[in-house]
Design a protein that fits this description.
It comes from Phaethon lepturus (White-tailed tropicbird). Residues 1-54 form the DEP domain. Pfam families: DEP, G-gamma, RGS_DHEX. This is Regulator of G-protein signaling 6. The protein has a two-stranded antiparallel ribbon with strand order 1-2. It is built from 13 helices and two strands; from the N terminus they run ααββααααααααααα. It folds into four domains: 1-52, Arc Repressor Mutant, subunit A (Orthogonal Bundle); 67-156, Methyltransferase, Methionine Synthase (B12-binding Domains), Chain A, domain 1, CATH 1.10.1240.60; 195-239, G Protein Gi Gamma 2 (Irregular); 241-302, Regulator of G-protein Signalling 4, domain 2 (Orthogonal Bundle), CATH 1.10.167. By secondary structure, it is an all-alpha fold. It starts with a helix and ends in an 8-residue tail after the last helix.
């Protein structure tokens, strides 16, 4: 870290060491350089060792990593029995949350992680160690340690995407369910493909389909919204004074007791007529509807 600060001061004619540290911290926050010993992306004016990030992971590639990529990365870390790759508490929590979110496709994610581990094991030990640290630094930028600023939300990346309108969300590992897994660092950047006549034809077809889509006039949308508001206005205690009292502005919970009672009021029954959803949302309405179905020998439709 001290060498980087001295380099800035010498080559950029910076007199104040604080300015050099601030400039280095801005660069480190974007992940271009990162500390080897910890995962807080700042520049320290001491003996901390830093490593340059691989160009593949630079922010200029307009990364928008998916949660599936993060799940593959965390899953891969759990397969490697190394102390330096052990999951931190927040990463273990993220992994558990992602496992619940992607329960249906977790087998696919696990298979991709296994394939990545097999590829990594074929590499030289030193190279593998460097690649592991670079990959982890990438995720420190996009899924930072709690308490650290997420620099990926800065406007500079939006500006970059405006210059590259063809750039869209892409997988860090180049993974789709049909594709073969490959190492993230050694994926070659694809050259920009020239737009062909077929591309223009597809675009024209797409735009024609959008034009032919059925669209509602704004006046119709406004009428529907007004009708909905008028229908429910008497049930909104913010607009219509509730009886016997408004629990939102007083400590009287009598209204909630009335709503939970098994003897529905006339206003409550009236609301059932709005839609079937209103009947089923109300426990008493659902019970009454179940009784009706039992009389018609079709109560299994509600169970």
């Amino acid at each position: 870290g001290a060498d980087i600060v001295q380099w800035f001061m010498k080559n950029l004619s910076i007199e104040d060491p604080g300015e050099a540290i601030h400039l280095g911290s801005l660069i480190a926050a974007q992940g271009y350089v990162f500390p080897i010993s910890d995962h807080v992306l700042t520049l320290k004016d001491d003996g901390t060792f830093y490593r340059f990030q691989a160009p593949y992971f630079w922010p200029s590639n307009c990364w928008e990593p998916e949660n599936t990529d993060y799940a593959i990365y965390l899953c891969k870390r759990t397969m490697q029995n190394k102390a330096r790759l052990e999951l931190a508490d927040y990463e273990a929590e993220n992994l558990a949350r992602l496992q619940r979110a992607f329960a249906r496709k977790w087998e696919f994610i696990f298979m991709q992680a296994e394939a990545q581990v097999k590829i990594d094991r074929k590499k030289d030990k030193t190279e593998r160690k460097i690649l592991d640290s670079q990959e982890r630094a990438f995720w420190d930028v996009h899924r930072p340690v709690p308490g650290c600023v997420n620099t990926t939300e800065m406007d500079i990346r939006k500006c970059r995407r405006m210059k590259n309108p063809q750039k869209v969300k892409k997988s860090v590992y180049g993974v789709t369910e049909e594709s073969q897994p490959q190492s993230p660092v050694h994926v070659p950047s694809q050259p920009v493909r020239k737009t062909t006549k077929e591309d223009f034809r597809k675009q024209i077809t797409f735009l024609n389909m959008q034009i032919e889509r059925h669209c509602l006039k704004m006046s119709k949308v406004a009428e529907s919204l007004i009708a909905y508001t008028e229908q429910y206005v008497e049930y909104d205690p913010f607009i219509t004074p509730a009886e016997p009292s408004n629990p939102w502005i007083s400590d009287d919970a009598a209204l909630w007791d009335i709503e939970m009672s098994k003897e529905p009021s006339q206003q409550r029954v009236k609301r059932w007529g709005f839609s079937m959803d209103e009947v089923l949302k109300d426990p008493v309405g659902r019970d009454q509807f179940l009784r009706f179905l039992e009389s018609e020998f079709s109560s299994e439709n509600l169970r």
